[in-house]
Amino acid sequence: MKPDVSLSGLFVPLVTPFTDDLRLAPDALARLADEALTAGGARGLVALGTTAEAATLTAEERQTVVRICAAACRAHRAPLIVGVGTNDTASALATVRELAGRGDVTAALVPAPPYTRPGEAGTLAHFTALAEHGGLPLVVYDIPYRTGQPIGTGLMNALRRLPQVVGVKYATGAIDAAAMELLGSPTPGFAVLGGDDAVISPLLAAGADGGILASANVRTADYAELIALWRRDAAGPARRLGAELARMSAALFAEPNPTVIKGVLHAQGRIPSPAVRLPLLAASAESVRRAVDLAAVRMQGTAHGAAAA
Known about the structure:
Blueprint: E1 9-13, H1 26-37, E2 44-47, H2 59-76, E3 80-83, H3 89-102, E4 107-111, H4 119-133, E5 138-142, H5 144-147, H6 153-161, E6 165-170, H7 177-184, E7 191-194, H8 200-205, E8 210-212, H9 220-231, H10 235-252, H11 259-267, H12 285-295, H13 302-308
Parallel strand pairs: 1-2, 1-8, 2-3, 3-4, 4-5, 5-6, 6-7, 7-8
Helix pairs in contact: 1-2, 3-4, 9-10, 10-12, 10-13, 11-12
């Protein structure tokens, strides 16, 4: 039996704000977390994802990020998902156990082991070990263009049968036959969360339960509204809002994530600096300016259109 966790709706994978001299900015992170869960209407948060630059954080900084996000989620009774990305199963298992021991983390977001490319049998063994011995529900992160390890239909079916696997962040870069099969044969207690920001609207139309969307750092409430519109079968307003958000998302991903997002958040006065850590470089002024303009757009008539649909 699957754990009783609700992973539908919008999850915001928060950036990690830095100061100009690249120190962690905990107060800014706390504000972002609170904003997402209040005015933004997000269902929950994701800490230590790719958008958080988790690979460049120290162990102490990672603990601080989780602590801050967990406090916000407790205050709002919202689920917290924490990224656990490593190609060492033993290390991943130790991290999942540590997160489980906290008592305030809902699930771990785990990709196929990156770089190693262990094949489908090795990938299944990796997730099986975490599921059986980690003590925490798992969300599979299917993002082959980062990991180099595709998760085919057969492997995905095997993974979603594991009792502790409660969902997938689906970011394969395509809405294809495999996606349609996944969405067309739902598993009780297993959520499909879109992870490709630019195509989240059609994925929701096809039956996805929600999304983990980096672009929602910028227009959180609009992404929450997009999910709500598709749930209400308000197709016309949903298509219009989805197209608008897709244009913004394309601008936010014009340079490596989260460089443009951080540039926009800084321009909006929401984080103290657009700084990112090497090997990332700060986004160009032109990319940030274009994204800022699109981030300022507000869909006109969305609520009216939804009510009339």
